[in-house]
Amino acid sequence: MKKKTIIPAIIILFMISTNLYGSTDGNWVSWGAKKTMFLFNDKTAIGMNKNINAKLDKSNGTIKLKMSIPLDKFDSGEPDRDAEVVKMLKGDVSKNLMYESETFSPEKFEQLRNGQTDQISGKLKIGNKWFDVVFAVKIANNKLSGQVETKLTEFGIEPPSMVGGIMVSVKDYIALKVNLDLSTLPH
């Protein structure tokens, strides 16, 4: 009897996580964090944001990818966690995360569009502080998919816990993913 219950639950969890974290449609940013519940049950929490403002800034003969990511639009399926994420990401200082890529020459940007570049360096602004980040990227058919995995403490964020880490303990880990259709971005 337990096997019949477990298999549909696994399928549902897979469908939910694929829908939140692995969708290739549209422009979005997501975060993934690992947590331990009750000292032994590891889980991944995921927050998705499809309300980003991304553009290609073309000036002085160069190109830069810029994104403004509203903190209050991340959806993890748990409103209390989403509110806590806004606090952790200094939502009282700035309502948006900001990202600016490295500056590309037109030739380097074409290499990026053609999939000849496998990483993009840039800066991520949390609150009023900028942090260096390097996204591993894949590009196909003008669609950019990127990810960076690092530690929360690299962004000056202490992993939260509840009841001294016995109930819930968040690992010092964060994955940031981005999906952009470069052909839809204003410039």
**Overall SS class:** alpha+beta
Number of strands: 11
Low-confidence stretches: 1-22, 163-167
Please give the count of helices: 3
Q: What would you call the shape?
A: globular
- Measured as a percent range, the helix fraction is 10-25%
Counted up, domains total 1
H/E element order: HEEEEHEHEEEEEE
Strand composition percent: 35-45%
Q: Would you tell me which CATH topology applies?
A: Lipocalin
CATH class: Mainly Beta
Rg value? 18 Å
The CATH architecture can be named as: Beta Barrel
Structure description:
With 187 residues, the chain is of the alpha+beta class. The protein has one domain: Beta Barrel (Lipocalin). Helices cover 20% and strands 44% of the residues. It is built from 3 helices and 11 strands; from the N terminus they run αββββαβαββββββ. Strand 3 and strand 4 form a beta hairpin. The relative contact order is 0.18. The N terminus is likely disordered. Pfam families: YceI (PF04264). It comes from Pseudobacteriovorax antillogorgiicola.
